[in-house]
Write a structure and sequence with these properties.
single chain, Rhopdopsin 7-helix transmembrane proteins, two-stranded antiparallel sheet, mainly alpha
């Protein structure tokens, strides 16, 4: 079966870009050619229905975005403060968690507030802003042309998404080393290597987020009325798709490759944990005399804290994959020709809401993190003698 690239580009909409659906993508760039009667302040017919584009719906969406931004910022500020003030978290795993919290907080500080600002502007003004789809068509794509806010917000959201995926992958690899090769953990996982990998993760993620603008002049960024975020949109006349449109396929390939690698590493780690748990159970039932007969003794086995940390990172991976799954479903539906404007909002913002989930997971799974949070809010109180040490 042969896929038509124009239908894919027309329908596809991802958190890293692509216009939202066929009608939107075409209408944005056909304003000047195919629709000469439309004025600069007019837009084509919206794809979403009245229940999703009306005043009440926009008001509810703004309230949801404000609450979400507050939860993301506060949760990740608490996470960063605890990790940076607690000496026990100054490890390779702690540095990776700080990197993940920074990426999540950038979403709450820049991406979500910009959507709130745009939605309020659409409610109080008659003419949409220039970065809104259906507004003034861009003359040139790529990094050239006049600057508008979506050229910042779109790559920031894409880059932070890539940073989150790559950081979760690095956290999984770091824990798998501790579980599979506990004797070599300190030699393989060092502070210098971890900081270098974090730097490479951020640099590579944002270069990948900017790749369509750097490598091609066939794409621009606009605020999409379906996802209500800044998305990539191809510049084309609705007849001939851009020849380098497959550049956008770099995004899902990167995401699914790292998520697949994370899943494989987690399977290896949990297989080892399961074998170790069963062996420990057999030794305990045998009266403990088999400890010395166990291959290598206790030093060759992963510690309880390493096992618990591996399980926590497994939960983080599951939560991110669950929030990313609607995007995958949306992509598959778009490729076969479905236009899901209302579902795109759910898919995009479910992924965005994942930015406030990590602090909840840490609070439930990590006792040291809970103690750090408690001490953070009780800073003015004198800790008991047992906690001073």
């Amino acid at each position: 079966m042969t896929l038509d690239m124009s239908s894919i580009l027309g329908n596809l909409s991802l958190p890293w870009g692509f216009g939202a659906s066929s009608g939107v993508t075409k209408s944005t760039n056909l304003t000047a050619s195919a629709s000469p009667g439309l004025g600069g302040g007019q837009t084509l017919a919206p794809l979403c229905t009245l229940c999703c584009c009306g005043l009440l719906n926009r008001t509810l969406a703004v309230v949801f975005m404000v609450i979400l931004a507050f939860a993301i910022v506060v949760g990740n500020v608490v996470t960063l403060t605890v990790f940076m003030q607690t000496r026990q978290f100054r490890t390779s795993q702690g540095y990776l968690k700080v990197s993940l919290a920074l990426a999540d907080m950038m979403v709450g500080v820049l991406v979500v507030p910009f959507s709130v600002y745009t939605e309020i502007s659409l409610m109080v003004t008659s003419a949409p802003p220039s970065w809104y789809q259906g507004g003034s068509p861009p003359l040139t794509g790529g990094l050239g042309g006049p600057w508008q806010p979506c050229k910042l917000i779109g790559p920031v959201f894409a880059g932070c998404t890539f940073v989150s995926i790559s950081t979760i992958f690095l956290m999984t690899v770091e824990r798998s080393v501790a579980v599979l090769w506990p004797l070599h953990k300190d030699a393989l996982v060092t502070r210098h290597r971890t900081l270098l990998l974090i730097l490479l993760s951020w640099t590579g993620s944002f270069l990948l987020a900017l790749a369509p603008l750097i490598l091609s002049a066939s794409f621009t960024l606009e605020y999409n009325e379906c996802s209500r975020m800044c998305n990539y949109a191809p510049l084309w006349d609705g007849v001939q798709p851009p020849p380098d449109g497959n550049l956008l396929l770099l995004f899902p390939v990167f995401d699914f490759t790292l998520l697949g690698g994370t899943l494989v590493v987690n399977i290896l780690s949990f297989t080892r944990i399961r074998r170790y748990t069963r062996k420990r159970k057999l030794l305990s039932e045998g009266g403990g005399d088999g400890v010395a007969a166990g291959s290598g003794g206790p030093s060759h086995r992963p510690s309880f804290s390493d096992i618990k940390a591996a399980k926590t990172i497994g939960i983080l991976t599951f939560a991110f994959t669950a929030s990313f799954s609607p995007i995958a479903v949306f992509v598959l539906g778009s490729v076969v020709g479905h236009t899901w404007c209302n579902f795109s909002f759910f898919a995009f913002w479910m992924l965005t809401a994942n930015s406030c989930c990590n602090v909840i997971i840490y609070s439930v799974r990590d006792q040291r993190f809970r103690k750090g949070v408690a001490l953070l809010f009780q800073r003015n109180q004198t800790p008991p003698p047992c906690e001073k040490s």
